[in-house]
Amino acid sequence: MPQVETLAPASRPALIVGWVLSGLFALFMLGASVAPKLMQMPVAEATMTDLGWPPGHTLWIGGLELTLTALYLIPRTRAGAVLMTGLLGGAIATQIRADSPLFSHILFGLYLGALMWGGLWLRDPAVRALLPFRR
User: Fold this and answer.
1) Residues 97 and 87 sit within 8 Å (Cβ to Cβ)
2) How far, in Å, CA of 135 to CA of 19, rounded?
3) 54-91, pLDDT tens digit by residue?
4) What does the alpha-carbon distance between residue 130 and residue 25 come to, in Å, rounded to a whole number?
5) How far is 100 from 46, CA to CA, in rounded Å?
6) How far is CA 124 from CA 67, 77, 97, 118, in A?
7) pLDDT digits (tens, 9 = 90+) for 26-43
8) Rounded distance, CA 62 to CA 47, Å?
9) How many CB atoms lie within 10 A of CB 94?
10) Which of 8, 38, 100, 129 has the fewest CB atoms found within 10 Å of its own CB?
11) Cβ–Cβ contacts within 10 Å for residue 5, how many?
12) Count of CB atoms within 10 A of residue 7's CB?
């Protein structure tokens, strides 16, 4: 008979902190990144143009960010986190290409990724099993 491994559920404090971190990530993405792009704010278009993106791509990228943020918040899937990691990697590459400052711009995608994966790791036993943290 095959052995079935059960995953230990997150403790209540870990689950709460995980959802708080995930919520902070989602609120940042929606408020500081998605909304300015979808509302076609001049600052969003100017920033994207300064980073080398052609005019008109801002709305498309905002829609992609909105979709990935929504996918991230769906508890039964981890696809949003995996796909968002790709988007954040692209943001890092864009900042490197634009020769932006290291800690405030280039690594900002890494900071967001750590917040995103940290929240998911705390609230999802499957992610903890896949990415174990050992002392």
Assistant:
1) no
2) 23
3) 989 999 999 999 999 999 998 777 899 999 999 999 99
4) 21
5) 15
6) 21, 10, 35, 10
7) 999 999 999 999 999 999
8) 13
9) 17
10) 8
11) 5
12) 11
Determine the number of helices (DSSP H) and then strands (DSSP E) in the chain.
Answer: 7, 0
Residue with tokens 């920033």: 47
For residue 53 the two structure tokens come to 């993106």
C-alpha–C-alpha distance, residues 59 and 34, integer Å: 9
**Half-sphere exposure (CA, 13 Å, Cβ side) for 76?**
0
- Nearest Cα neighbor of 38 from 52, 58, 68 is 58
Burial class (CB in 10 A: 0-12, 13-18, 19+), 97: exposed
Written as one letter, the residue type at 50 is: D
